Structure formats: structure tokens, C-alpha cells
Amino acid sequence: MSQQHAQKLLDFIDNSPSPWHAAMSTAMALEKKCFQRLDERDAWKLAAGGRYYVVRDGSSIIGFIIGDGDPIKHGFRIIGAHTDSPGLRVKPNAAYTDGLMVRLGVEVYGGPILATFTDRDLGLAGRIVVKTGPAPTDIDTQLIHFDKPLVRIPNLAIHLNRDVNEKGLKLDRQEELPMMLSVLQEDLPAQQQFRAIIANKMDIEADAILSWELHVFDTQPGCFFGPDDQFIANGQLDNLASCHAGLCALLDEAVLDPKTTNLIAYFDHEEVGSQSSKGAGGRFLPDILERISIALNLDRESQKRANANSFLLSADMAHAYHPNYKKFYDGEHKVVINSGPVIKINSNQRYTSESVSEALFARLCEQAEVPYQKYVHRTNLPCGSTIGPQIAAQLGIRSVDVGNPLWSMHSARESAGTLDHHYMIRVMTGFFAN
Ligand SMILES: [Zn+2]
Prior knowledge:
Layout: H1 2-14, H2 19-32, E1 36-38, E2 51-56, E3 60-65, H3 71-74, E4 76-82, E5 87-98, E6 101-109, E7 122-131, E8 139-145, H4 164-167, E9 179-183, H5 190-202, E10 209-218, E11 223-225, E12 231-234, H6 237-250, E13 261-267, H7 284-295, H8 300-308, E14 311-315, E15 318-319, E16 342-344, H9 355-368, E17 373-375, H10 387-395, E18 398-403, E19 405-407, E20 414-417, H11 418-433
Parallel strand pairs: 1-2, 4-13, 4-14, 14-18, 15-19, 16-17
Antiparallel strand pairs: 2-3, 3-13, 5-6, 6-9, 7-8, 7-10, 11-12, 12-20, 16-18, 19-20
The chain binds zinc ion.
């Protein structure tokens, strides 16, 4: 079973090379199970037992099943995660020449380990907006996915960079990250050449392309490794592994508690701070919860009471213990691959877990017969954060930050445990079942 779950995760990631694709993959899985898409511009009529989902600006998505019990008493149960991953983004006027080489300039999105993007078989994926008619509003957004290697950042030969192994691979973001695309064709300026490649791929006229958001990803498919396939490797395990686990839990109708409104809420822009209209720090989730409450005829006080009975399970990956780098871990809080989900704790509220939510998650693990671990960052290192604190602060609901152990977080290719993914699905399924 754990192999099957992990294989499905690898497939989910391979089909989701950008946050827009991650939202689409999630939406497709929900549609298969008869979830109905809602538009935020429409008036909503929601029924108990109804299954719905909403997408905001293509890359944040909330899916939910309306409970048939008392909405005040049961509140909302929410699994939160993020759809974006750090990496490189293609600039608007990306293509330029140097010598005869056409290169694509990039911005750095969030905090990737830049060196891991060198010498990899890179593809591009995201969305483009095209002109469809004469009026300014005649535009259409289309997803684009170059699933074969298209660009590359070749390393400098060691003969020209003799101390790379002593000093590490440092890349100047402006000068040394542009990606090799092609050799210049004499009759076509670089920017036109790149636009023609996109137009060809999408079967449209190059002149119709107005804008794009293009994410650079590693085209190598996900894989198992280790003697018994104990480990998995892929890009974007942070945080599509959490998205996939929550999705599996919501779609497991055999055990789902029908009385409570259960939601998955996946946000773009976590890697850049979540402060956007569709980010976890924005109004997306508060708006959707409010609209569900309105549709269920709750007055304002009842909405607040429903929120007070709610719980957020904020899922993002955790730093697995790496025995080659012992000094970076607190000796008593090493979290080990394939040893179960991690409760992330930080007294400075970089994570939302407090003793009560920590205990509730521990009980869920016990009930699911899944081991769990507790992570605290080294006291002398600054701790990262995630969507949990931003959502909990806005909604005022109880929350716990959890996640599976992961090696090389923010590498172009991360690795994790086969068994852990299965464990997390079991705990999340239990969360929606209680
Ligand atoms: Zn993350």
C-alpha cells in the first residue's frame, strides 16, 4: 500500500510542474469524484453533503464537502498546504544573445538551492495569456507544459573553476543563471525565436501572446531509490507531497465523517511570503469559509462560533535528519525518514503548534497506528515558517503545523520516505473521519 501511495504521489508531481498545474491536477482529481466547480463571481447555493471546489487565479484551490451536522457545533476541519515550489521564473523579455547563443534570463522565485539547477534537464511550465479578439477583455489563459528538456544551465568546467569543491558552487543571479536555449538563427531575433517556440507548442500565432508566468522545472520523472524502494526522489516534494496526502484523505469517502464540513486549502505564493490575493495571508480561505457559512444561513455570531469549533492541520515538509551534517540538528529533536509524520514546534510562533494542538495531532497518529516525531529547530539557527501562522492569525482558529521528513528541501530534486507518505495519508484520513 505504501508503494502505491508513493507512486501516485510521484505521478501527481510529474503532472504538476508548476503551481497552476498543481491546482489543475487537484481540480481534476476532485472532478473525478463529482466535486462541482464554483465561480467566486456567482451566487452560491450549497447543500449538505454537496462537494465543491473553488480556484482563485489558477494556482490556489479550496475543495470541500459540506457536512450534514450542526455547522456551529462541528465547525470546519481544514488541511492546508501550498502549491508553489521555489525555483526560477522566466523574465518577460527573457531571450537575448551573447555570441551566437540565445539565453533566457530568469528571476529567482523564493529560496531554491540554486546550484541544484545546474546540469539538469530543465523544462518550462506555467501559463500564458493570449489575445482572442479586438476588445481589451478578449484574452484567454492557457496552461503550457514543455515536458521535454528545453533549457539548461551548464556548469563551468572545473579546469576554469579549480576551487569549486573547496568554496562551493556560487552563482551570480544576474550573470550566471541565464539558461541556454539555442544557437541564434540568423533571420530571427532572439525574443522572436523564443516566442515562436511557445507559439508552436501552443499552436497559436506568436503575435497573440501577451504575457506569461513560466516556471523552470526538472523534467526527470520521480523515482524510488534504496534497496527496497524505501525512498522517493522528485522535484517539488515540498509541498506537493502534503497536497497529495490531503487530497487522498478528502477523497476517501469510505471513512469520511458526513457531519463536519471538511476542506483542503492549497495556496500559491507560500515560498514568497503568502501575502497576495490568493496566498495564505490573503482573503481566499476566510472568504470561502464566510461564503459557506452564509450559504448555510449562519448569522455572524454563529459564524464565529463555527470558527471557534474549527481546526487547521497545516501541512508542509520538515527537515529530516541528515547524518552527514549532524551539527545542524538539535540532538533530541532529530526527525528521521520513514519514522512518521513530524509535529513542528517553535515557541516564537514560526509554527502554530501549541501543546493542545500538538496533543490532538499525537492522538490522531495513535488512532491511525502511525508513529510520530517532534521537531524543534536548533536554538542558534533561525527557523523557517509556513502557511499555518498566517491562516491561524487571520481566522483565530486552533492549528497544528505538521509535515513529513524531507532531505534537501528546496533542491531541484528532493528526497523523502516511501512509508512516511502512507503514514501521512492515514493520519489525514483519520482527521477527516473523526
Ligand atoms: Zn513548503
